[in-house]
Input
Amino acid sequence: MGKILLGCIADDFTGASDLANNLVRAGMRVVQTIGVPAGPLGADVDAVVVALKSRTMEPSEAVAQSLQALAWLQAQGAQQIYFKYCSTFDSTPQGNIGPVTEALMDALKTDFTIATPAFPDNQRTVFKGYLFAGDVPLNESGMQNHPLTPMTDANLVRVMQAQTTRKVGLIDYSVAARGEAAIRERIEQLRREGVGIAIVDAVSNDDLMRLGPALKDMPLVTAGSGVAIGLPQNFKLTPSSTASELPPSAGLQAVVSGSCSLATNRQVLAFIKAGRPALGIDPLRIAAGVDVAAEALAWAAPLIQKGPVLVYSTADSNAVKSVQGRLGVEEAGAMVERTVAAIARGLVERGVRQLVVAGGETSGACVQALNITQLQIGPQIDPGVPWCHAPSDAADAKGLHLTLKSGNFGTDDFFTKAFTRLA
Output
């Protein structure tokens, strides 16, 4: 493998695929690794996205894992580092976005970076430093009810400042709209004012494309996946369909979902309303010692021969809070993740070779249960969500096709559309 152009660190597995998807669409050949590889990759690619499961762990551990990923990427010759977080800026006042950003800045010996989760293709925009999900501020979008990282403030300057010791500033829309020279001038002004991290406004893809050239010489970029569309041009790369080619698809089809987002709730409902087989799993039965995974696999076995099936733990926010109140937040989440992951592995062992996984934490648990260490990134299903191909010891030598969908992403018909797109 030659030196890579862009080395990326993502704080969850679906977010890593989201970033890789945008890079592939812009012409980069990309591999996503699950965790930090033990040695060099055997592939000749332009970018590597190291997927961590660090979004909700203790800040000190998130920092340690991110620095380990940085060291590996530097050893592969990465010319620029990209720290990727969610387009809803999922974090708490303790982190982990701020602490990881500062640790990477220190390690790279840089005094300035930008931060923006803007991803207009998925209706995530930043205006005057405020993050919007669709037409409403983030804290009115449903994210205020997130079970692990409730977002109650849409002002990203305030959110980031609470997590960092460096001064946080703003590059607003009036600057971003004027392009590279104006952005660079504003960066130098902020530096003189002692600012170390700048939130950047972006309300359209054009804003992100104008931002890209201004980041060409920046050692560290921190962002959601949207900024990725403007970076490959800095390496003289252009969009190419060959960057997203995957092996031919075959085998049975299934969906497993652990996300409780509003978007995934709609997708589950659409799948059921279409008359397709779906099974909901009850966390309280898992807690009572029932082998819910075995039950789900017995239910699915005859049905997957006829078409895609769905196994889900998705629920609305009130139901989630009720279960958390009985079992505790961490235990409720971990217990469901383990069960859904066991179901995913069992489905693959029974012949599923096209698998959709919904939810960031759920995706992390599933790829680990399937012993997947890297994914080849393929074509986009919906903005931020590509099909991938991966080897797994639960599958045969041909591996399986897999998509890791962030809970908030995708149209209502995503679960059925995904298989049509792959075919």
In short: Residues 294 and 343 are 8 Å apart (CA to CA). The two ends are 31 Å apart (CA to CA). The mean pLDDT is 93. Residues 6-239 form a domain with the Rossmann fold fold (CATH 3.40.50.10840).
